[in-house]
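During the reporting period the student researcher (J.K.) took over the structure-prediction task from the postdoctoral fellow and processed the backlog of single-chain submissions. One of the processed entries is reproduced below for the supervisory committee.
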Amino acid sequence: MKKSVLTRYRVMAYVTGVLLVLLTLGVIAKYVLDINGAVDFTRVVAIAHGWLYVVYLIFAFDLGSKAKWPVGKQLWVLLAGTIPTAAFFVERKISRELESQVTDPAPAVAEA
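J.K. obtained the following C-alpha cells:
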C-alpha cells in the first residue's frame, strides 16, 4: 500500500476530528450558554464538517479496502468521524498498525 493512501486518511481524520470538536463546542455555546454568534458559527462548522466527513468516508473506505480490513473494523473507522475526539485515537491506532505495510515511492535515481 502506498504511503499517500495512509497520509490522506490521516489528514482527513484530523480535519474531521477538529471540526467535530468545534461543532460540539458550538452546540454547547448555542444551546447551553446561549452565546450570541454561536448560531452562525455552529451553522458554518456543521456544513464544513458534513462535506469533509464525506471526503473522510471515501479516504477511510479506500484505506480499509487496500488494507483488506474486515467489515467490523471498517465500520469502526468510518464511524470514528462522528464521535468527538474518537478520530484522533482511531487514526493513531490505525497509523501504528499500518506502518509496516506502507511503502514509500521509489526515489528517482540521478544519473551522473
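The committee noted the following: The chain has a mean pLDDT of 85.
J.K. will present the remaining backlog at the next meeting.
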